[in-house]
Structures are given as C-alpha cells and as structure tokens.
Amino acid sequence: MPKQLFNILVPVDFSAKDKWAIAKAIELANSLDCNIHFVHVVSKRIFPLMNVEAAEFYPYDYTVDLKNARDRLMQLKNEYQQHLCCNGKIEVSVLHGNAQEELTKYIRLFQMDLVVKGLAKFNLLHRIISSVSISSLTRKTNVPVLAVMASGLVSHFKKIVLPLHNEIPMRSIRLAALLGRSFKSTIFVVSLRNSGGEHNIPVLSQTLEIIQSITTIPVQSIMLEGKNIALSTLTFSKKINADLIMINTLKDFYLPGLWNRLTKRWLSYSSGIPVLTVDQTGQE
Length: 284
Hints:
CATH superfamily of the largest domain: HUPs
Strand content: 15-25%
Number of domains: 2
Order of helices and strands: EHEHEHEHHEEHEHEHEHHE
CATH architecture of the largest domain: 3-Layer(aba) Sandwich
Oligomer: single chain
Number of strands: 10
Distance between the termini: 7 Å
Shape: globular
Structural class: alpha/beta
Largest sheet: 10 strands, mixed
C-alpha cells in the first residue's frame, strides 16, 4: 500500500450516482492532494444480462458515441474543476469495449491508487447485471474500491471501522492509517465473539499493536456479538455513526441468507455508510 495516494479513478456512466462518487473523490483529493480521473466506457451489449459486446458479432462504429461521451465528460470536468482546491487536476478518458476489462487496463496502465464507485440506492438489478463488480475489480487490479451512496456524503472519515477475519489485513491497516492521519480519525478494529470468534483474539491484539506502532491516531478494539461478520459490522457501524467501513474480498462479507447470496447483496451494496474494499492478496 503506498504511503500516499496520487490518482483516484471515478467510473462515470452519466447517471445520478456519479454525483456522489465525484463529490467523495473531490473530498479525498482535497485532503490527500491527488488527481482525479473521470473514465467512461462506451459499451454496447447484445443483451442486458450477458456481458457480450455487439462488436464481437457485427461491425459497430463507436465514433459518435465516443465523441458524445467525451463532450459530456468535459462538461463534468468544467463543472467540478472549481471544487478542486489542491494541486491535483481532473483528467478525462473515454474507452470502448467491455467495461470491466477496459477499466482494469486503465487502472494498471495509469497506476490508479483508489477507485470511487457510486451505487444506486435501490440497486437489486444493478447488483445482478453490473459489468463492474466491486470485488472482481479489486481482485484483478489489487486497487481498493470505495463504494458510496448518496447517504455517504455527510461527513469526513472521522470513524473508520476495520472488521477482521482470521488474518492481519496489512493493506487495510496501512490505508486506514493513511486516511486516519488526513481526517484525524478514530479506528475501530472489530471481530466476532461467537462461532469461534475467540480464535480471532490474537489477530485482534496484533492488529491493534501494528496500528499503534505506525500511527498516533486513536484506535479501539471491539468484540462483536453475532454469527455473520458483515451483519454485525454493519449494525455496529450504524450504532456509532461510522463514516467508513473497510472490508476485504472474502465471501464472509456477504449478508446472511440465500436471497442475499443469489442477488450478490454483500456489505458494499447494502450499507448507506461508504465501504472500502481492499484485496489482501498483495500484502507487503
């Protein structure tokens, strides 16, 4: 995890949810002094539920769509440039093809440090057919993805909740420390008490020690009741009015119930609180 963020990517699809993703990206850029990249992928699917491009079966001229998209991105840039109060700048790019693949390439090529993705408030269909899966994008690029709804714009990251599974999440710890120093936050490290949660006590203690060794920001450790880490974390976070939840890409962060698993309703898509997904496979 870098000690500083330099580039934030916002995938833009020209819907209402772009507004709160851009607003959160600007807030972060102004606090961390970094650049913002507005990226739109022109994608022509044959069917909404199939991630297959029309161009794979018949010639398709993207010229008009690319020009229109670039014009709209420039309008967004001109609108939001005045809100950027740091040394960073706003870059715009238009791509075409499979959205997940093109964003992955862009993130790797231009070395993005964070992706900020807006989520619709009522997002059942969006979760099922979305071509940009948060967990998949995080795993493929090893770059954290911050999911934001409209309700996630009311404050800075003053209270950061870091739930633990069965290992020390070094990448999440470093990123939490970076954000905590910028926003003068308090970090709450949480784990389950029941269903074998006692085995997480050493992990909880070691995580607490590591955070205290790399930063002077306040940190607390909490043992939560319950059987599902996602649900218990969400309940606790709402109780303390948390501003950010940091999770990894494990399936344990699905909310309980068969319906939730079938509809891919995991913590990122279910919390009014911003959720930052961090892949732990690239730990330092």
